[in-house]
Every structure is written in structure tokens, then in C-alpha cells.
């Protein structure tokens, strides 16, 4: 089983829709979780950290479910500019060699 | 504004040649990283450094080396380029002791013929 798994998509959604992605992780000792956004042929950029209590940043909500070992990203009122690949990142205890990037979920927001 | 730059942005080379990719950051971050990104794989860690004169091997370090002589720079060297090293390479940096958030450079697209 891969350490971090994501549905590659693509998720094709109309503008204004709500869309959610999940990401599962295999190591129960994982301690830090993030969502990054990557536009085509560009570098990944941190979208948000994921906290145990869940957190929200505008239209974006991230949640952590430790019991089922997954994190989620909810995007409300999708904009065309949200079209990108969303990378799930999980860090186990220890140094940065313990950071694992998922392969990403592609989102395409359609006019 | 602080940033990370990489050069060159595109490089075509031949099998067996030595290639060096540059990474320069003005964040004054202690931690620096090199990743490669290939279709079907997430970003994979090649080498990383926690500070000047410190270097560590990552998941896919064979055929690559790095050196850290100052805070700002972490050049990545391919000792003898192979076609399997055709990839997009990203440099990243982060603050000491943070939870894992990293800032990435714009990437270098390397083709080995």
C-alpha cells in the first residue's frame, strides 16, 4: 500500500459547485498534514496546513480523520482559477526525509 | 521579496555528461531540499540539508550529489547523466523546526538524451 494515496481525477465541476477530495495515508504515526496546489508546469505552493480540529480559509476547508487515516479538502463556490492539481502531503515523525507527497488530484472547473 | 530561484529553467544534455542545477534562496532558511517529479510519482526527495556543510540522502539519491557552502545555495550535481534522470527538478526551502511547510522554486526541466 502506498504511504499516501489520492484519486488522480480529473474532477470536472461547474463554476460555483462544491467539490471534495480525500487523501488516505498508511502510517498511523503521521503527525503533520498539508494541502499544496500545483498549476500545470509550475511549482507546488502551500495551500493550507491541516489541523486536528479542522481548519478553514475562505472557501477552503481541510479536515483530518485520524481514526480512518485520511485528510480531506473541501472547496466551496468553485472558481475557474481553482483549476489545478491538489497535492496531499504527510509528514511522519522525524526529519524531512519523512515527508511524503501524494501524486495529486486534478481539478478542472468548467464555465 | 524573498524567493527561491533555479537555473537553468530548461536543460538538454547527453548521457554521461556532468550537469549542475543551481538553487538560490533569499528566505534565509536553514533547510533546503531537492525533489524530482515524474508522471505517476509524487515529488520524491533526492537530497536535503539542514544547514551549512550539512547534506543528507533522500529516497532517490543515487547518481546525485549536493554541497552546502552557504545558507543561500544548494546546487545539485548529476555526476554522469542518465536517461532515467530526465525529469522536472524542484528545489525547496523551509524554516528550521517548522511542521513541514516548504517553499518551492520554479523548477528545472532536464532532458537527458
**How does the overall form of chain A come out from the CA principal axes?**
globular
Low-pLDDT parts of chain B are none
Radius of gyration of chain A: 13 Å
Name the assembly state.
heterodimer
**In sequence order, what are the helices and strands of chain A, one letter per element?**
EEEEEEEEEEE
Instruction: Tell me the structural class of chain B.
Output: mainly beta
Describe the sheet with the most strands of chain B: 7 strands, mixed
Quickly count the helices of chain B.
0
Round the mean pLDDT of chain B to the nearest integer and report it: 94
* Low-confidence spans of chain A: none
Cα end-to-end separation of chain B: 37 Å
Mind explaining what this structure looks like?
The complex is a heterodimer of chains A (111) and B (113). Chain A has 111 residues and is an all-beta fold. Helices cover 0% and strands 54% of the residues of chain A. Chain A is built from no helices and eleven strands. Chain A has strands at residues 4-6, 11-14, 19-25, 32-38, 44-50, 55-57, 60-65, 70-75, 84-91, 99-101, 105-110. In chain A, the strands form two sheets. In chain A, strands 2, 4, 5, 9, 10 and 11 form a six-stranded mixed β-sheet that branches. A five-stranded antiparallel β-sheet of chain A has the order 1-3-8-7-6, with no helix packed on it. The mean pLDDT of chain B is 94. Chain B is globular and about 40 Å long. At the A-B interface, strand 5, strand 9 and strand 10 of A face strand 4, strand 5 and strand 10 of B.
Amino acid at each position: 500500500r502506498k504511504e499516501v494515496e489520492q484519486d488522480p481525477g480529473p474532477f470536472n465541476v461547474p463554476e460555483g459547485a462544491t467539490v471534495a477530495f480525500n487523501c488516505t495515508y498508511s502510517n498511523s504515526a503521521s503527525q503533520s498534514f498539508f494541502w499544496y496546489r500545483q498549476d500545470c508546469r509550475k511549482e507546488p505552493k502551500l495551500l493550507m496546513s491541516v489541523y486536528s480540529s479542522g481548519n478553514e480559509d475562505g472557501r477552503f476547508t481541510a479536515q483530518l480523520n485520524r481514526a480512518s487515516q485520511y485528510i480531506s479538502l473541501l472547496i466551496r463556490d468553485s472558481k475557474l482559477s481553482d483549476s489545478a492539481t491538489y497535492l496531499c502531503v504527510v509528514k511522519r515523525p522525524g526529519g524531512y526525509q519523512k515527508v511524503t507527497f501524494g501524486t495529486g488530484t486534478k481539478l478542472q472547473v468548467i464555465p | 521579496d524573498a524567493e527561491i530561484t533555479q537555473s537553468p529553467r530548461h536543460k538538454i544534455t547527453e548521457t554521461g555528461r556532468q550537469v549542475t542545477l543551481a538553487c538560490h534562496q533569499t528566505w534565509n532558511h536553514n533547510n533546503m531540499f531537492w525533489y524530482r517529479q515524474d508522471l505517476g510519482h509524487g515529488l520524491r526527495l533526492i537530497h536535503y540539508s539542514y544547514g551549512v556543510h550539512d547534506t543528507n540522502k533522500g529516497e532517490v539519491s543515487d547518481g546525485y550529489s549536493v554541497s552546502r557552502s552557504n545558507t543561500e545555495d544548494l546546487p545539485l550535481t548529476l555526476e554522469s547523466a542518465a536517461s532515467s534522470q530526465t525529469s522536472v527538478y524542484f528545489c525547496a526551502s523551509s524554516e528550521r523546526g517548522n511542521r513541514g511547510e516548504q517553499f518551492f522554486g520554479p523548477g528545472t526541466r532536464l532532458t537527458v538524451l
